[in-house]
Design goal:
The chain has 287 residues and is α/β, with parallel strands linked by helices. The protein has 11 helices and 11 strands. The chain has a single domain, classed as NADP-dependent oxidoreductase domain (TIM Barrel). The strands form 3 sheets. The protein has a 7-stranded parallel beta sheet, with helices on one face. A two-stranded antiparallel sheet has the order 1-2. Strands 6-7 form a two-stranded antiparallel ribbon. The longest helix is centred in the middle third of the chain and has 15 residues.
Length: 287
């Protein structure tokens, strides 16, 4: 697979000045179990990141909470100095207490500290896309967004994004600072963020679905998904990604993996073309 082939799904503009291919890489799995601690094989994690770039992936998503801090350090270790066209997106707003344990912290003070830490670990002077990881119910949402707006004004971040938000959150945030992306859970098996996706489409905002490969019971033998998969000689994951890419022009999936083989399989989905009838059939499936 060549770099041009990875762009076969088209490109997407972030904020009007960053152009990325519509299939990125989510780096969350490049640490230990429960998204905690160092990966069992750090060398393998570096190989996955380097192979992603070799395949033409130019959008890598991470967060300071992954590890915590482990994945950001791993990205800079594997890829710095970065290719000119590589966009690294990271997030702040979570603290970690152990494997599988997450606590929101959207206070302006913490977000400033988190952003500074990400800059150091990623070896960047400015983060291209910095996203609020999740609204904190203990902090007024506008205060968190105002903190990101100040970081943008101060040159610490280039663009602001949101994650795990509602359409109302998006509307309120846009009154304070331009928002170029929303990262919510969305896949064939979970479409509860449909209203947010539609809002993003209306404003030309990138929609980054996390957990994009999930198919749940829809992957049963003999079902519609299985028949479409067999017709294209593809995997369930590849069809799930192809459906996302076909469903909306603002879609930017970030499938993650700790396996080079699975990475190559996922990236190959950029070239998979579903017919309009197949897209409709998958859309009508009931999770």
């Amino acid at each position: 697979m060549t770099k041009n082939e990875t762009r076969s799904a088209g490109t997407l503009a972030l904020g009007g000045d960053l152009t990325v291919g519509r299939l990125g890489f989510g780096a969350m799995r490049l640490c230990g179990p429960g998204v905690w601690g160092e990966p069992e094989d750090p060398g393998n994690a570096e190989r996955v990141l380097r192979r992603a770039v070799e395949l033409g992936v130019d959008f890598v998503d991470t967060a300071d909470a992954y590890g915590p801090e482990v994945v950001e350090r791993g990205i800079s270790s594997a890829l710095y100095p970065y290719p000119e066209d590589l966009v690294i997106a990271t997030k702040g707003g979570y603290t970690r207490q152990g494997p599988g344990r997450w606590r929101t912290n959207g206070s302006p003070k913490y977000l400033r500290e988190a952003c500074e830490g990400s800059l150091r670990r990623l070896k960047l002077d400015r983060i291209d896309l910095y996203q609020l990881h999740r609204p904190d119910s203990r902090v007024p949402f506008e205060r968190s967004i105002e903190a990101l707006a100040r970081l943008r004004e101060g040159g610490k971040i280039r663009h602001v994004g949101l994650s795990n938000v509602t359409a109302d959150h998006l509307q309120r945030a846009r009154k304070i600072v331009p928002i170029v992306s929303v990262q919510n859970r969305y896949n064939l098996n979970d479409r509860r963020s449909e209203a947010v996706l539609r809002a993003c489409e209306g404003e030309g905002i990138a929609f980054i679905p996390w957990l994009p490969l999930a198919t749940g019971r829809l992957a049963r033998p003999g079902g519609a998904l299985d028949r479409i998969r067999a017709r294209h000689n593809a995997t369930f994951a590849q069809v799930a990604l192809a459906w996302l890419l076909a469903k909306s022009p603002v879609m930017l999936p970030i499938p993650g993996t700790s396996s080079v083989a699975h990475l190559e399989e996922n990236v190959a989905a950029a070239a998979l073309r579903l017919s309009g009838e197949e897209v409709r059939a998958l859309t009508l499936l009931k999770p």
